[in-house]
Write a structure and sequence with these properties.
Elements: E1 2-10, H1 14-21, H2 24-33, E2 38-46, E3 49-59, H3 64-70, E4 73-82, E5 91-99, E6 104-115, E7 118-129, H4 135-164
Antiparallel strand pairs: 1-7, 2-3, 3-4, 4-5, 5-6, 6-7
């Protein structure tokens, strides 16, 4: 199942948005906001880019037929490999999200780029659940969970920029 989401950070520049999402304290705050039971964030520079790794144990907020497969909690590993800035300052990352111990994942691309008087953050990707017959029924639920977590992260980021005024 395809994911294609774009969010706007009005009034924020690309460097500021990138600085926020490569900040360990911010990513930990996001984990708390989305009610992670436990989490571990690692952010490491590589050249002009960054590797971001976030492992979270989350309540399985899925329909009952999926909870029968996953249990009451799921462990999610999110990896982002952010490259060097483009000539225009934009950033691109390869993104992988895996539900550990389950045949569910997302692979895609995140981009941060200037747009009008602010910055856009976009995520495109493919969610796959490799379970015969029912995988396609589960994919929309996994996509919903990924989009909900991303939306919470963006809302928290926007609130931080608004507070800085």
């Amino acid at each position: 199942m395809k994911i294609n989401q774009t969010f706007s950070y009005e009034g924020a520049d690309v460097a500021s948005v990138f600085g926020l999402i490569t900040n360990k304290e911010f990513r930990d705050e996001v984990s708390e906001k989305i009610h992670a039971i436990s989490y571990e964030s690692t952010i490491e520079p590589h050249g002009e880019g960054f590797n971001v790794s976030i492992k979270r144990k989350m309540p399985a907020q899925m329909p009952d037929f999926i909870k029968k497969l996953t249990g009451e909690t799921v462990e999610v590993l999110q990896r982002e490999d952010w490259g060097a800035p483009g000539a225009d300052g934009s950033r691109t990352a390869d993104v992988k999200v895996n539900i550990l111990g389950q045949p569910a994942s997302m692979a895609g691309t995140a981009k941060i780029y200037a747009s009008g008087s602010g910055t856009e953050f976009s995520l495109t990707g493919d969610v796959t659940v490799k379970i015969p017959f029912i995988g396609k029924k589960i994919e929309p639920e996994v996509a919903k969970a990924i989009i909900a977590a991303l939306t919470s992260e963006v809302e928290l980021g926007k609130a931080k920029f608004a507070a800085e005024g």
